[in-house]
Amino acid sequence: MNSTGPPPAHDRARGLFTGVVLGDAMGAVFEGEPSVSELTLREFERSKDQLHYTDDTVLTIAVAEHLLERARCGGHLLDEGELAAALTCAWNREPWRGFASSAVGLFEQLDSGMPWRDAAVSVFRGQGSFGNGGAMRCAPVALAAQSAHHAAELGRRTASVTHAHPDGQEGAAVQACGVYLALHTCGPLDAESFLSRLARVIHEPEWVRRLQAVAAQLGHRDPHRAAEALGNDVRATHSVPLALWAFLAHAERPVDVVRQCIRAGGDTDTIASMAAALTGALRGAADWPQSWLRRVEGLTRLHDLGDRLARLSP
To answer: Which of 71, 153, 162, 173 is the most exposed place for a label (fewest CB within 10 A)?
Structure first.
């Protein structure tokens, strides 16, 4: 954060959305790679080609617009049935944005009229999805949450419409709470305290162990080592911890947060998007390089969402 003090709330909101789209669009180029060399990444950064976001940003926008619509109507902050419909509409409008086949199947069932609770348990042999789809889109709820616990609960609820598995929901709770804590950090970031506060909102013991694994990696800066220890695939238990590590280990340098997520390989777009959302919520929008921002589509729309949601912040 700059020497004049913490960034104002509206700048943190813009930073959150900037991080979402930057991490997503930059990471999408390398999705599925087992790892990415520093040389390859530097060459990519020197390019001037436009960067396009994926389903991660599409669904984050849908969550944000749902929150704004609920606020406009004066009803409860979140309605799962309406959110399921909004997510399905977002997929229908842009099905080419890189949606996973499991997500496509679920949205097809929602589009056909299946109730969201039934659709959510229809995948993965009735267990529901334990992937990171709920966590990747939940960051906006932190702007409307009244407390860390409230943010975690809103994260679980936004995930539940597509992710019936506890891990899919708990990953969203951890990410939403993490973004809330980042938004409300007004001094140097204390990684140990941050993880301790996250642990207080967790319902699943496995997630406490995953946070302990993150803490054990904070002394190391090697993204490949972190990926081996924490995971880097689409499972929420593997991708949310890696995003937290990248954020906590490199929070003073936002560019390194994104770079480390990409260099770690695997589900690079979602992991970088989650980590950069945390970083943007902490540091605001000003710290991202202009050379990156000029390449990313949709930034004006995302900044507008940030401005409007910032006005809802308690």
So the answer is: 71
Section 156-180 average pLDDT: 97
Question: In this structure, what CATH number is given to the domain that contains residue 89?
Answer: 1.10.4080.10
Per-residue pLDDT for 3 more than 90? no
Does residue 31 belong to any structural domain of this protein?
yes
Q: Which domain holds residue 125?
A: 9-310
Q: How far apart are alpha carbons 102 and 175 in whole angstroms? A: 22
What are residue 131's DSSP bridge partners? Answer: 235
Helix, strand, or coil here: 51?
A: strand
User: Model-level pTM?
Assistant: 0.96
Q: Which of 245, 272, 283, 301 is nearest to 132 (CA)?
A: 272
pLDDT confidence bin for 136, thresholds 50/70/90: very high
Q: Are 242 and 271 in contact (CB under 8 A)?
A: yes
Does 4 map to a domain? no
Give 89-135 pLDDT, tens digit per residue.
Answer: 999 999 999 999 999 999 999 999 999 999 999 888 888 999 999 99
Structural domains of the chain, count: 1
| Gap between the Cα atoms of 58 and 23, Å rounded | 13
The 10 Å Cβ neighbour count of residue 6 is 17
